[in-house]
Design goal:
This protein is an alpha+beta fold and about 290 residues long. It is about 50% helix and about 15% strand. Helix 5 packs antiparallel against helix 6.
């Protein structure tokens, strides 16, 4: 089974298409990767409609099917199909894995998440280094496996380390990195930090996202004053966590080695964790689904 999955995973990049500026995967391709019938994919969505809002999964329109076919001759779709395919965004793929609850679905979904993240990292970290190549990647990311590999060859590991490892005294770099991570989210950022305070609020008030701050030591007066002026933060009092975490849109997880009040004071690192099942458990612990 693992050998089959490895072979399938090689071609995941070619199974990601763009519809109306959103990167998606087809139900038939996911069924192929998960080793189930396509109808099972759609049955799972039908039985859990509340977990699949149209922003993360929808049945394509005739125009979307026509555009998909004309732009991607290799797409696993036919103009003569009786029904238009259902598509899933990255978040939709994650949600589907939690519904199917099979070992294969979980392992393959992690590989798919890795592919989405890898492609996003190419774009974000190389925008200034290779602007022309990144532009091509953004426009044709669904059929560009070779270009992706070429980009990896030109990737400077030191730039990656600089983005995720901050040394003492690098106060601006720490602040900039935090903003970069927050801005990767589409809608929501969850911050888990038992020492969240004024330093963190000074940052999040400038970011146009919805925030959830989970902490055991939220200063009541500070919280009240913030909520009187700003309305982008929901505070949750919780003492379940020791480490600091950042969660983007409830499906991308970062571990932060420093409390956000101490960013830049000492050397620390931020790393992305690829554990969608563990992330689901974390969200349940703080009362979020």
């Amino acid at each position: 089974m693992n050998e089959v999955m490895e072979k399938e995973a090689i071609h995941v990049e070619n199974m990601i298409y763009e519809i109306n500026g959103v990167e998606v995967m087809l139900d038939v391709d996911l069924a192929r990767l998960y080793h189930v019938e396509t109808k099972r994919i759609n049955e799972a969505v039908y039985r859990n409609k509340d977990k699949f809002p149209v922003r993360i999964s929808w049945i394509t329109s005739n125009d979307e099917v026509s555009n998909l076919w004309s732009q991607n001759a290799t797409a696993n779709i036919s103009n003569k199909s009786r029904a238009n395919p259902r598509v899933f965004t990255e978040q939709g793929v994650y949600m589907l894995a939690t519904i199917l609850k099979s070992k294969v679905a979980t392992e393959v979904s992690i590989r798919i998440m890795d592919t989405f993240v890898r492609m996003r990292h190419y774009i974000n970290f190389n925008r200034n280094l290779l602007p022309n190549r990144v532009l091509l990647l953004e426009e044709k990311v669904d059929n560009n496996t070779k270009r992706i590999d070429d980009l990896f060859d030109k990737f400077n590991p030191n730039d990656i380390i600089k983005k995720y490892l901050i040394f003492d005294g690098e106060f601006y770099d720490a602040y900039s990195l935090l903003l970069d991570i927050f801005n990767r989210s589409l809608e929501e950022v969850i911050i888990i930090d038992n020492y969240a305070g004024k330093e963190l609020l000074d940052i999040v008030k400038e970011v146009d996202r919805k925030f959830i701050i989970v902490s055991k030591n939220i200063n009541k007066k500070l919280k009240e004053k913030y909520e009187k002026q700003y309305h982008n933060v929901t505070f949750i009092n919780d003492d379940s966590f020791h480490d600091r975490f950042i969660i983007l849109d409830r499906y991308v997880l970062f571990l932060c080695g420093s409390s956000f009040k101490d960013l830049g004071k000492k050397c620390f690192g931020i790393s992305e964790l690829k554990d969608i099942i563990g992330l689901k458990v974390m969200l349940e612990k703080i009362g979020l689904k």
